[in-house]
Each structure stands twice: as C-alpha cells, then as structure tokens.
Design a protein that fits this description.
- The protein is α+β, with helices and mostly antiparallel strands and 411 residues long.
- It contains twelve helices and twelve strands.
- Strands 2-1-5-4-3 form a five-stranded antiparallel β-sheet, with helices on both faces. Strands 7-9-10-12-11 form a five-stranded mixed β-sheet. The protein has a two-stranded antiparallel ribbon with strand order 6-8.
- α1 packs antiparallel against α2.
- Bound molecules: adenosine-5'-diphosphate.
Amino acid sequence: MPQPESDGDYAELMREISALEAEFATSEVRNRLADVGRRIETLYESLRENRLLLETVLENSAASIYAKRKDGRYIYINREMEILCNVTRERGLGRTDFELFPTDIAQQWRSNDVKAMLTGTLSQSEETVQGARGERTVLAKSVPLISRNGDIEGICGISTDITDLRRTELALREAVAKLERERDSKLLNIEAITASIAHEVRQPLTAIATYANAAQQFLGRTPLDVDELRTIVDQIGNDCRRTNEIFDGIRSLFRRADQPRVPIEINQTALDVLQSLAGELRDHRIATHTVLAAGLPPVYGHQGQLRQVITNLVHNAIEAMETTTDRGRELRLTTNPQGGNAIVVAVEDSGPGIDPAQLGSIFEAFVTTKAKGMGLGLAICRMIVHRHGGQLSASSDGKSGARFQLVLPVE
Ligand code: ADP
C-alpha cells in the first residue's frame, strides 16, 4: 500500500518540535509548540487508524485490487491479485504489465487503463487471467486516480473473479435448453399418441370394411346365404368390440395412476388374444403352440391394456413370419411363474428374427423395418408394461426367430 507518511517522518517531526521547545525561552511559545505537537499526534493517530482500516479491507477483499502510476508502473497490489495473477508484490511493484505478463494481455490491460485515464471515467472489460487457480475469467474495472486539482495521477483497478458466475450462467443456459428439448419431446409424444391411436384402430377398421364388402357381395346372391351373412355380421361385431377396447386401453393409459386395478387371469387373457386372432393365424398357416402354467396368481392392472400388449406381440410375430417359407411357421405362447412374485409371458416365433444389434432400439417410438409400419406398437407395449410395474424384453439370434418376454409382478 502506498504510504504518504511514515512512522520515521512522524518521529522526526516530533523530535524537531521538542528541539524547538527547548530552544525557545518563553513558556508561551513552548506551550503553543506543545499544543501543535499534540494536534499533529492526534491527526497522525487518526490517519494511522484509517490506513489500518483501508489496508485490512483491501487485503481481505475477494476482488483483486491494484493501483498504477500514469506510466503503468504498479504502486499497489493486494493479496488477491498476487494469487489471481501469480505475481508477488516484490516482483510486481514498480513494474509495468509489459514486464510482468504476456504482451497480448498487457496490451489489453494497458488500453483499458489508458481509456479510463483519457475519459476520466470508469472503463471495464471481461478478461482471462492465468494464475495460481488456473485460468479465470475476471471483470476488470479501471478507475482513474484524480488528484485534488483534477490531474490524472494513475489508475486504480478492481477485478472480480466471475468464473463461477459464468459457469453457473452456462449451466442455467444448458438447463433451459434441456427443458426446451423436453417440452419439444412432449409435443412429439402428443404426435406419437395421435399416430398410435390411428395405428391401433386401423387394423380392426380395415377388417370391418373387408367384412362389409363381403356382406355386400353375399347380399347380391340368390339364394341368400343367411348363415354366411350371420358369420360376417358376428365378425363385424367382434371387430367393433376390439376397436372399443383399444380406445378404452388408450384412454386408461393417460388416466391418473390411482385408477382402480382389477385382478387379471393372464392365461385367460392370452387365450382371448389367440381366439381373436385365430382367423389371421389360420390365413398365414401358422401353427400355434400354447403352454400355459396352471394355478398362476392374478396380475393386477388393466385388462384391455395387457390384452393390447399380447395382441401386438402376436401380431408382430404373424407379420414377421410372412417371409418364412423355408420352414414351418410356428407361434409359441407360454406362461410361467417366476420366483413366486412374477409371471412370465413369452411369445416366440420362427420368423427371420431380429438383428441382435437392433434389439435395443426396437422399443423406441418410430423404429420400424416395415414399409407401412409406424414403429409405435412396441413402444406403447413397453409403456403399458412399465405402468404395470413389469419388464418387456426381446431376444433373438437374428436368424431363426424372436422371443418377446413379458414379466409382470403379482401381488
Ligand atoms: P411396427 O410393427 O409398426 O414396425 P413395432 O414397434 O411393433 O412397430 O415394431 C418395431 C420393429 O421391431 C418392427 O418394424 C420389426 O422390425 C421389429 N419386430 C417386432 N417384432 C418382431 C418379430 N417378432 N420378429 C422380427 N422383428 C420384429
């Protein structure tokens, strides 16, 4: 800290006053000199107190503070600056930035200082400094030191370390970007939901249209085959019920989690699914093997949704086996208890299987290998199974078929 007066000067002044006191004979002059001495002493004391206060504040400040003469030579460097800029007072005082720091940095600091001295106002800039704490970003403020008669005598600088602030800002910006991405993906979810409704409903609707078409043709025939027509109308009724179930299932997916759960006999659900897809299985010449474990406890959940999952798995198996011509087309549906607290439902087929590298991604929305596929079936299935506290996974050697396994907890 620059010292305008020193203890040495003060002591000398006081010695001189004592000498003068001794020289002057009259007590009046001696008294006046003693009075001046006391006033100087009081002034000096308060000056020392102020200096101590200022020094304590400057030395303990979290900001790095320095002062330079007009020519750029340091006359003061506080402790924080020593650390921040890796420069000791012994080395720094009396030197310029060009003697202490790399030229590009010195140039930037000098131009900041000169700007403040020319304008007589505060000049500030964001700077990077290398010091004991590594690379830090600081907000450097240069304030001109102006004497009482208005002359610019130098510069005082205060640099605040804003590295953490900038890091927090960056983290905040990233968090905002993440939130925006999440919002966008929610919008994508809405799109996915809309597409999934269309995807699920299209299948029974197509069947209804086909049956209606067939009915029209039968109506034109004589004699009228009432039995055939009744079968067709029954099929239409079945597909209407299926459509309703799909809507129920989708609706309940988005209902609150505390909706009542009902006990479900998983074997019966599996049989219902095979029953409703019997026509398709037959048309595709698929042999179905069903091995259902007896005495399974019920699963608690939503009947329509679980039926939807098994239907999707069987339907995917049927589609996969469309290309299977070199061996029998076989579908195997099994149920088994697992460790007393879960049930495993497995759907296996003898289709082309799934490339093991793709096994992880097929459950993602919009992943499909089918020309007209939506890639939503498995994504929805997994969501339903997760909502039931279970797991849905797939395995395959990529050649001789695929196995989808559904593990559902029981209570
Ligand atoms: P989509 O049926 O509309 O393609 P899914 O989500 O149901 O959508 O299936 C995603 C993809 O997983 C399918 O396109 C197919 O490549 C693959 N896949 C699903 N089930 C099987 C299966 N049993 N055998 C072979 N590949 C399958």
